[in-house]
Design brief:
With about 140 residues, the chain is α+β, with helices and mostly antiparallel strands. It has 4 helices and 5 strands, in the order βααβββαβα.
Length: about 140
């Protein structure tokens, strides 16, 4: 798998990957999320490509204090192939190069299988509560 930053023309394939990995929610339009991330130098979307197909992704950003990673996805056909580790390593390295000292991520409580993946990479559960507030009305009922 070759890892590279997202390019113009990749958006539909990345959004499709996110849908196949069940990462999309009604209130998170993938096309808008991709455009928003690409609009700032503090964000990057890395993709993993194999045989011309996008098979992995990680969207990362620097909020000025910590790094964050979202939309980590590996095509169901390639899960268990180490592509998840590879795409996370690319995101971590990019954030490290920006001077970020700590990376954060959020996992939906319904996605229990992915917790073991992150634990195997050295991530730990933090004693924090994540809170949120919508600044604009979401397209459908409240969510994350």
């Amino acid at each position: 798998m070759e890892i590279r930053p997202i390019r113009d023309g990749d958006e539909a394939a990345v959004a499709d990957l996110w849908r196949r990995c069940e990462l999309v929610r009604p209130w998170n339009d993938p096309t808008s999320d991709i455009a928003f991330a690409r609009a700032t130098p503090q964000s990057e979307i890395f993709i993993g490509e194999r045989d011309g197909a996008i098979v992995a992704s990680a969207m990362c950003g620097n909020d000025g204090h910590r790094g964050w990673v979202y939309y980590v996805a590996v095509s169901p056909d390639y899960q268990g192939s180490k592509y998840g580790r590879m795409i996370m390593a690319a995101a971590e390295e990019w954030l490290r190069m920006l001077g970020v000292s700590k990376l954060e991520l959020m996992i939906r409580d319904t996605n229990v299988k992915v917790v073991k993946f992150y634990e195997a990479l050295g991530y730990k559960t933090e004693p924090v509560i994540t809170m949120s507030r919508w600044l604009k009305t979401p397209p459908e009922a409240s969510g994350d």
